[in-house]
Design brief:
The chain is mainly alpha-helical. Among the domains are: about 5-30 and about 220-340, no CATH class; about 495-580, no CATH class. The chain has helices spanning about 5-20, 35-45, 60-70, 75-80, 85-100, 105-115, 125-135, 140-160, 160-175, 190-200, 205-215, 215-220, 235-245, 275-285, 330-340, 345-360, 365-375, 385-395, 395-400, 410-420, 430-445, 465-480, 495-500, 510-520, 525-540, 565-575, 580; strands at about 260, 265-270, 285-290, 305, 315-320, 320-325. This is DUF1800 domain-containing protein.
């Protein structure tokens, strides 16, 4: 892996590393010994084990749109079914249409945000810095990040670029920066618009550099203060552990010259070591921000800057490659990003996460391998990510996987607002939005607000606790019951949609339940849940014979006539709480 060096120079380099990092004897890192089988028994017995429960499959359009958008709606199902003569043709046309996101007219979405009072999403980085960083009012300072956070839900519900919005949120979780961080929030518009959105469907290598140079990430992982006199390895460690290789390719503290070659490509090491982290941190010294630092007080506009005086210009050895000393500005870091972006294990790590987001918590290895081959083959292509996504989204998993993913709270709320024809826009400075924002906080899934660098988890087990479920259920129920801000009706048009879909003269319990199950789920739920919905809607009336009146009168002595509108909204809420809706 150091074939570019003569053997004598390679030996000198290896000896220098051994002295510098005190590589004597066994590495400091040793894997934990495997627990004896007998000792593991009692511990495992106390842990509840997950069970796979298979759900019946809804129509293909519903399955496809629930995986590739924030939720199937009556309108999106009709549009999907019109795209071709069979499932394969329709799926291919939809994926190609959504991957070509720039050709989708989303001007109505932008107009909606503008009308709702969003004022910072179009500001340049310089404007964010001067108008929100360099002032004292807390609400003004934090407004850009708060607007990005709330716009995420508004776009998930109303944008026509559904796949793009999902992919952008994926990259936010992958390159996580906590939006409510005091230093990051005022420049978060730049991070969302000019980093993740700019590169979401583009090239991973270019995105890596954009992330590394972004003001928000500089603050979040402290690289703006990384200098040869005061090295900081926070960004370097997360770059390798979270952004590219994954913890499964971490080898601990060991001699980098002893790392085995990667089986997929022997010109690369099989993983990364702590010494790779230290050397990478040295390579990114001097990558900083113009923030009025005492040494450079006149530079204060929040943009990226390379400070040559802070850079460690010495030789480095990273991921099996020697980096020569005294290279031109930025080249040390860029050489490492090239090495990372072309690594076969990085390709597999990224592709596994992408497949997990769309289809399955435990992706099959053959799909990971085939997607990684596409990802790596096109690592220098401007549409690398788009090519990889097309391979994944038209795979067998896209056609056959169902019920293997749990909707996280944000996704469940967005899907509910979509399927219930919400025309309301989540925003700042509005009471109902503030109510929802407060409630979403209790679900544990406010957009972009995960405090740790690893981003929100994307496995069902992480969201399977009682608190997450209960607070999500409470929020879904609140959506069906709450009034809009104007006070002239409910937030969601449940009654109006029911009257349009089922003639009032035919409001039997079965017709109402069937209508809403079909509209929300695409089919009837499992029999016991379906019968519970029927009994709840009918109360003491005949399921098929009694017509429920379109009133909300009080009739405590005859429950089939008691608060009918409220019972209808509660029935819709119960459908939203079913495993059929909360799975995809």
């Amino acid at each position: 892996m150091t074939d570019q060096l003569p053997a004598s120079q390679r030996k000198l380099l290896q000896d220098a590393h051994a002295r510098r990092y005190r590589l004597k004897g066994a590495p400091r890192f040793q894997p934990a010994p495997a627990a004896p089988a007998a000792a593991a028994g009692p511990v495992m017995a106390a842990i509840s084990q997950p069970r796979l429960l298979t759900l019946a499959k809804p129509p293909f359009a519903v399955r496809a749109l629930n995986n590739l958008s924030y939720g199937a709606t009556a309108a999106s199902i009709a549009a999907f079914n019109a795209l071709g003569a069979n499932d394969t043709a329709r799926m291919t046309a939809y994926v190609d249409q959504q991957l070509n996101w720039e050709s989708i007219d989303d001007s109505a979405m932008e107009a909606r945000l503008s009308a709702a009072g969003y004022t910072t999403l179009g500001k340049t980085l310089a404007q964010q810095w001067s108008q929100h960083v360099r002032q004292d009012d807390y609400n003004t300072r934090m407004r850009p990040g708060w607007e990005v956070q709330r716009a995420a839900l508004a776009r998930a519900v109303h944008s026509k670029r559904q796949l793009f919005e999902i992919v952008n949120t994926f990259w936010h979780d992958h390159f996580n920066v906590m939006v409510t961080d005091y230093d990051c929030c005022p420049v978060y518009v730049h991070y969302d618009r000019d980093v993740t959105r700019q590169h979401a469907m583009g090239n991973f290598r270019q995105m890596l550099e954009a992330v590394a140079q972004s003001t928000a990430m500089m603050y979040y992982l402290d690289n703006l203060s990384n200098s040869r006199s005061g090295p900081n390895e926070n960004f370097a460690r997360e770059l390798l552990e979270l952004h590219t290789f994954g913890a499964e390719n971490y080898l601990g503290f060991m001699d980098p010259f002893q790392v085995p070659p990667c089986p997929e490509d022997p010109s690369y090491p099989i993983g990364y070591t702590d010494i790779d982290v230290y050397e990478t941190a040295a390579a990114f010294t001097g990558w900083s921000v113009k923030n009025g630092h005492w040494q450079y007080p006149s530079e204060n506009d929040g943009t990226f800057v390379y400070r040559a005086a802070w850079h460690d210009t010495g030789p480095k050895f990273v991921l099996g490659r020697f980096i020569y000393p005294e290279q031109p500005a930025l080249k040390d870091g860029r050489d490492i990003l090239d090495r990372i972006a072309s690594h076969p294990r990085v390709a597999k790590f990224i592709c596994r996460k992408l497949i997990r987001r769309f289809f399955n918590d435990e992706p099959t290895q053959d799909l990971v391998d085939s997607a990684a081959a596409v990802f790596r083959q096109h690592w220098q292509a401007p549409d690398q990510i788009k090519r990889t996504l097309r391979h994944i989204l038209l795979s067998d998993a896209a056609f056959h996987n169902w019920g293997m993913k749990q909707r996280r709270p944000f996704e469940a709320i967005a899907a509910a607002l979509r399927v219930l024809d919400c025309d309301w826009t989540y925003r700042l400075d509005e009471n109902r939005s503030n109510d929802l924002n407060w409630r979403m906080g209790f679900t544990g899934h406010q957009p972009y607000d995960w405090p740790a660098p690893n981003g929100y988890p994307d496995k069902g087990q992480a969201w399977g606790g009682a608190n997450s479920h209960a607070m999500t259920w409470k929020t879904l129920n609140w959506l069906t019951e709450t009034n809009n801000v104007a006070g002239d009706g409910k937030l969601l048009p449940i009654l109006e949609t029911t009257r349009t879909g089922v003639p009032v003269a035919q409001w039997t319990a079965r017709r109402l339940v069937d209508f809403w199950c079909t509209r929300i789920l695409g089919y009837r739920p499992e029999a016991s849940r379906y019968n519970t919905l029927l009994a709840f809607m009918a109360q003491n009336g005949d399921i098929d014979g009694y017509v429920i009146t379109d009133t909300d009168a009080w009739a405590q002595g005859d429950l089939k006539r008691h608060y009918n509108h409220q019972r209808l909204r509660s029935m819709v809420s119960l459908v939203l709480m079913t495993p059929e809706f909360l799975s995809r």
